[in-house]
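Q: What does the assembly look like in three dimensions?
Context provided by user:
Components: two
Sequences:
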Amino acid sequence: MKTYAEMNEQELFALKAELDEQFKTEETKGHSLNMARGKPGVSQLSLSMPMLNVINIDSDMHTLLGNDTRNYGDWDGIGECRYLLADMMQVKKDNVVICGNSSLNIMYDTVARSMALGVNGSTPWSRLKKVKFLCPVPGYDRHFKITELFGIEMINIPMDEHGPDMDLVEAYVNGDDSVKGIWCVPKYSNPTGITYSDEVVRRFANLKPKAEDFRIFWDNAYCIHHIYDEIHDEILNILEECEKAGNPNMVYMFASTSKVSFPGSGVSAIATSLENMEYLKTCMTTQIIGHDKINQLRHVRFFKNIDGLNAHMKKHADILRPKFEAVLEVLESELSGAGIGTWVKPRGGYFISFDAMPGCAKAIVEYCKKLGVVLTGAGATYPYGKDPLDSNIRIAPSFPTPEEMFLATKIFVLCVKLAAAEKLLGEMGDAAAE
Amino acid sequence: MKTYAEMNEQELFALKAELDEQFKTEETKGHSLNMARGKPGVSQLSLSMPMLNVINIDSDMHTLLGNDTRNYGDWDGIGECRYLLADMMQVKKDNVVICGNSSLNIMYDTVARSMALGVNGSTPWSRLKKVKFLCPVPGYDRHFKITELFGIEMINIPMDEHGPDMDLVEAYVNGDDSVKGIWCVPKYSNPTGITYSDEVVRRFANLKPKAEDFRIFWDNAYCIHHIYDEIHDEILNILEECEKAGNPNMVYMFASTSKVSFPGSGVSAIATSLENMEYLKTCMTTQIIGHDKINQLRHVRFFKNIDGLNAHMKKHADILRPKFEAVLEVLESELSGAGIGTWVKPRGGYFISFDAMPGCAKAIVEYCKKLGVVLTGAGATYPYGKDPLDSNIRIAPSFPTPEEMFLATKIFVLCVKLAAAEKLLGEMGDAAAE
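A: Here is the predicted structure of the complete assembly.
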């Protein structure tokens, strides 16, 4: 099979004519499909419905230590919930503070606090001339929106299958004291699905930041979100590695049960060193008297322990796997060998990252929209929404059914092909005109 | 009856000897009573237990508009909950954003956002040399802790039975552009229990702030928290009054159901002008995807509407009233005419504010502690914990039983008397030594 780049103009014209026909046919069908956001599907949500019966009018509302979860108190969360999320994040309970329903909110708060108050007593970032964050790309759009809102300059760091380019990370962090942070989704990364290698994690832990208030924002969003039973990615414990390397305070880890129980009605947590916790305590006890302890109790009574969480996530995996496989099957059968797109088969998380032929991503998203298939906007996986190659597209297979994902991906590959053929023909036209 | 100040030294010595005896007797009893924090009592919490059954495995989890409350979405809250809290706050639904479990957290966020980002595009407060807040005193300690954390200078504004001293407020706000905010608990004020008069509210609305980013922080914490059936304080709608006065953006109103349903597991809201909302939306949609909509649904399905809220609060009042009356009865019978303390009989809210003879508050709190009665620290109702007269003590009657409150207040008045007698004797000694 020829790749698209190997075709001559005549072959490409013939191909484009054929694709145009297919496009017209699909256009008449009035599709309404969405591969845009990483939302759990309805059958996943149903798995957690029994949780809503666990706390009821007859429940003992007290924690194991005897505190009434219905009243004020326990700013850092009830002990049993701290244990549960500590096990989920593979850290120690004493390093964990349970917060509200959203880990994104904790990350925002952490940046906001650093802007207004500094980090453990350092100069508030908002008083500095320049504050920079490193952004492994492609990455999570909502991370980038936070730093953008606060006027923090974002620097793209390329990712490969092992994680971010650590040569570049080290050069920036160790050499520039205006670099104050880096956004990471280290396991089943959003969107590439890869997990940072042990070497990458160790190199993170052994950074020698020029800025003492540099922090790694380690968004452990998909820590137990495997897709396959038999293969689970493992990742080194960054808190332990940082401690070993003499950098105990360098990392904030975040996680939540948004994609375990209910998005918006789960519990979230931050894990960090005891010294960082001391400073957090000062600020957080001013911010709030306490988070929703009844919901913490609901989670603990339903999941009981890490085994309960894992058993629940196995059920999620059984629902998600066919959706991911529907996408991968179509990509594989339609695009293998065509040289117009690459993708990684993820073993967990919520996304499949697709790299189209450079200069095609926007066109693909636009074509898909015309055919009734909504994709995350091209560029969204890059800071400022600007993908320098106009190549990356994030596919979110979780919400639709496997059948819908199959159909949506069929339409997606049609648009990928069409955009590639047009790109190549355009280049030939340009070359002829010169 | 003679006031303490009218007694001669001999009378005071005799009195003190008697009080010392009583003190010793109480000391042997090993009391363990707490009048410190405004926590609902267990019987109040029990009123809301049926709410926990309202949402269960069989519930339709969709909003009236058909959105699934279990999934992401609705950053500003589900419509029916916005209506419910709008009615509670006596504002319009379109001016309301439902947030998490804590209105204190919204206030903190609002200050933090103003520090780091400014107000609707103004210079971030953290970049200014000086930022000041006006603090009507006595007031709510947790308000003052927020502004203290952010290094905002706090200025005491005396309160009387109509509200803050508006001559002073006008002089500061209209004359000093570093004055950026004022903390208010306008209804059943914490701790004095008074409600701002119509004139005070109108003077607030008609301020002509020198700083365009000046905002009134209107903590409507006790909007439906009446103690008596027959007498409800009413307050003018500050949003409407500000609009009438041409100052539509000057106020943020806050409220929550922390003392309606469950502290820590309620829902909170901010109400403000549509222009302020636009800016909040930019920031809040970066901060979080959405708050806990299942809990919002739980509240709406349980309370149904403002009538449901009011009926529920009547039950709270029935529980709270005897506790307040126990305190007032003892104060009245033991201290009337003694000239060593004043208090206001509140018609709502959570506190009774007691003004001891100047220079006595710390001593009273200390004596109470020795007798096993915990009070809010003296000075807590003032910025920086510094009551310039060392006079104000906040009594929180809500958590103990009426019998416990009766007993605790008996001990309290004993300590008030003892501190006053010692104070006067000390002054006589000083005068004699001169």
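Follow-up: Chain B has two domains: 4-44+310-433, 62-304.
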